[in-house]
Amino acid sequence: MFEVSVEQTFAAGHALRNYKGGCEDVHGHNFRVRVTVEGEQLDATGLLVDFLELKSSIDGAIAYLDHKFINDLPPFDKINPSAENLAKYFYDRVSEGVKPGVPVRISEVCVWETDTSSAAYRPKYSALV
Questions:
Q1: 127 belongs to a structural domain
Q2: Is 113 a catalytic residue?
Q3: One pLDDT digit (tens) per residue for the chain, 129 residues
Q4: Which among 23, 24, 27, 40 is annotated as catalytic?
Q5: For the chain, what is the domain count?
Q6: Residue 32: inside a domain, yes or no?
Q7: Which domain holds residue 37?
Q8: Is 108 a catalytic residue?
Q9: What is the CATH number of the domain that holds 46?
Q10: What is the pTM of this model?
Q11: Cα 96 to Cα 14: distance, rounded to the nearest angstrom
């Protein structure tokens, strides 16, 4: 199995609803996101997936959040903008950008709020698309 990861960063503010602590107040982070894809076959060029294509998919998802107050943006106007929910958001958005017929799947999305605190989302079942 081959694996490729791309990391990107963005800055945004949020407030955790019902947290009962300091993070319930508005605050910001320099977030880091890593998307990892896996697959069993390389293409004719010897690539699992082009880094630039994966980066482009992540960039689109980041552009929606970058330098914004995340709580104001759907779906985070309804669900808490936790690192866990952000990881799932990136999984959903980047999955939309995976080209049909490319035999890869997203195996993990990890979101860091700080250099030492992160949350990951891994789909339970994910067929190669």
A1: no
A2: yes
A3: 999 999 999 999 999 999 988 888 899 999 999 999 999 999 899 999 999 999 999 999 999 999 999 999 999 999 999 999 999 999 999 998 776 666 889 999 999 999 999 999 999 865 554
A4: 23
A5: 1
A6: yes
A7: 2-121
A8: no
A9: 3.30.479.10
A10: 0.91
A11: 25
